[in-house]
């Protein structure tokens, strides 16, 4: 049962049809959609859920509605990062980017509220020659973000665990900022019954203030001429159109209109003060959950100078240290090696300076691809390396059957014939992780904290 005050608060919003809206909330069968990982799909020997793929999500690339929700946990390809289970409305960010930055080059992108990482993975794929700083304020959620980023496997994501105000020093640094704001969550009422119970007029007002505060703290990081995308999964005007007015009034952002197809069912709205464009997703009109998004351009004025970038708390290992690792994994020379804690990592040389600058001001949870660390004389490859997109021609790869893959993901002992030492294991052609073959046993190196607990 939806709160009366909530329904009352939506009356008068263009596209809101109380009866149809409430009927859509009675539907028990949820909508499930996935977006394939464009970098891993070419290696897949079998398309997951091929019999369940119902129809493509019209505003996204290689994203599909499924006829039912399978057990994703028990699909090894979820753990290999073959796809991301993402709510369809959220995928509209790709349609926005296609229209506003049709030829992405080497953009520096900030996803300020990024966990669990649905939009981060989308941004990482869209800006494949750029870099995405994916930030999450809550530590436990930053860990989930990090896990999902590792599974996605790209080398162009830096995960940070900071408050938005910590970004203030990165003046005019980003070409694109996505603020997928924390909100009252009414758009997810169909999926999350707790959100219904927690909804209140007071919380909507508190969320609106928080959205303004986050905007204020990060707006200076956007380059003149840069793109600002604001989204929520709330239907409340206070969190949607009113924030778009705030962004135009306070920071002079210019609203950008996006083309939509009538058959998509998305409702175009305008804010009351600045007539800023916004896009509303109502569940009775769209095959997806509730969502709001608006797009802005920062005026193109030239101001400010970049600070001196070149001091950072990241170490560069010596060539002597990296030579055996380079030889072990045949690392292409467009990568820069760096050491974070005791882990050897790489990032594209193009983004080395970006990383230095970010690391000067923010807590970096992960960046680039971790290759592993030295334990005595042994080099222990990181799990992240197995999940990355790096070709590892010198590594022996053992293809597992479904039962073996699930045993591996449960971190159970498995029997395999591999080469002595480190071997990657894969399922349907995608790497799942590492095993170490010893004379009398095989050690399973799947991370304990990620293991599947479900039978
Ligand atoms: C809507 S969710 C983000 C979903 C994510 N963008 C995705 O696509 O998977 C909003 C996020 O904002 C974070 N958050 C909460 N309070 C915040 C604050 N004060 N500043 C920034 N982010 C905050 C939440 O922890 C949550 O992860």
Q: Keyphrases for this structure?
A:
455 residues; alpha+beta; ten-stranded mixed sheet; four-stranded antiparallel sheet; RNA methyltransferase activity; RCMT; methyltransferase
Describe this structure in words.
With 455 residues, this protein is of the alpha+beta class. It is built from 13 helices and 22 strands. It has helices at residues 4-10, 18-26, 76-79, 92-100, 118-126, 139-152, 193-198, 201-218, 241-251, 319-329, 352-361, 383-387, 402-409, and strands spanning 32-36, 53-56, 63-66, 83-85, 108-111, 131-135, 157-160, 174-180, 222-232, 254-256, 267-270, 277-281, 291-297, 335-340, 343-348, 364-367, 369-375, 378-381, 397-399, 421-427, 430-437, 442-444. Strands 5, 6, 7, 8, 9, 10, 11, 12, 13 and 16 form a ten-stranded mixed beta sheet that branches. A hairpin with a 4-residue loop joins strand 21 and strand 22. Helix 8 (201-218) runs parallel beside helix 9. It is globular, with a radius of gyration of 23 Å. Mean pLDDT is 93; it is low at 302-312. The protein binds S-adenosylmethionine. The site of S-adenosylmethionine (SAM) has 17 residues, from helix 5 and helix 8.
């Amino acid at each position: 049962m939806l709160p009366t005050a909530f329904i009352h608060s939506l009356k008068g919003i263009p596209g809101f049809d109380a009866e149809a809206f409430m009927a859509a909330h009675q539907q028990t069968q949820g909508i499930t959609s996935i977006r394939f990982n464009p970098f891993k799909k070419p290696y897949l020997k079998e398309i997951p859920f091929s019999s369940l793929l119902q129809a493509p999500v019209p505003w996204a690339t290689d994203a599909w509605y499924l006829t039912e929700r399978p057990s994703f946990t028990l699909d090894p390809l979820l753990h290999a990062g073959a796809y991301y289970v993402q709510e369809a409305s959220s995928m509209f960010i790709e349609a926005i980017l296609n229209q506003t930055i049709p030829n992405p080059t080497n953009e520096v992108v900030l996803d300020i509220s990024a966990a669990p990482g649905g939009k981060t993975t989308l941004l990482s794929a869209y800006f494949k020659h750029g870099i995405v700083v994916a930030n999450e304020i809550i530590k436990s959620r930053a860990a989930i973000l990090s896990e999902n980023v590792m599974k996605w496997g790209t080398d162009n994501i830096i995960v940070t665990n900071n408050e938005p105000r910590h970004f203030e020093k990165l003046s005019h640094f980003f070409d694109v900022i996505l603020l997928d704001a924390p909100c009252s969550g009414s758009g997810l009422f169909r999926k999350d019954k707790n959100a219904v119970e927690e909804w209140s007029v007071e919380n909507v007002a508190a969320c609106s203030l928080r959205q303004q505060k986050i905007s204020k703290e990060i707006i200076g990081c956007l380059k003149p001429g840069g793109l600002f995308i604001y989204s929520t999964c709330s239907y409340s005007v206070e969190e949607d159109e009113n924030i778009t007015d705030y962004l135009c009034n306070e920071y002079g952002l210019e609203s950008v209109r996006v083309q939509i197809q009538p058959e998509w069912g998305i409702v175009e709205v305008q804010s009351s003060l600045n007539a800023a464009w916004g896009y509303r997703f109502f569940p009775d009109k769209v095959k997806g959950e509730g969502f709001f998004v608006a797009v802005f351009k920062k005026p193109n004025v030239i101001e400010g100078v970049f600070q001196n970038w070149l001091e950072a708390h990241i170490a560069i290992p010596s060539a002597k240290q990296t030579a055996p690792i380079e030889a072990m994994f045949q690392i292409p020379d467009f990568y820069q090696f760096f050491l974070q804690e005791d882990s050897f990592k790489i990032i594209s040389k193009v983004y080395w300076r970006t990383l230095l600058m970010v690391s000067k001001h923010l807590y970096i949870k992960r960046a680039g691809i971790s290759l592993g660390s030295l334990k005595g004389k042994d080099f222990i490859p990181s799990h992240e390396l197995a999940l990355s997109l790096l070709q590892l021609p010198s590594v022996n790869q053992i293809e597992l059957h479904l039962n073996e893959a699930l045993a591996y993901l449960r971190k159970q002992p498995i029997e395999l014939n591999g080469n002595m030492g480190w071997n990657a294991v894969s399922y349907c052609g995608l790497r799942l992780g590492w095993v170490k073959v010893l004379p009398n046993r095989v050690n399973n190196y799947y991370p304990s904290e990620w293991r599947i607990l479900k039978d």
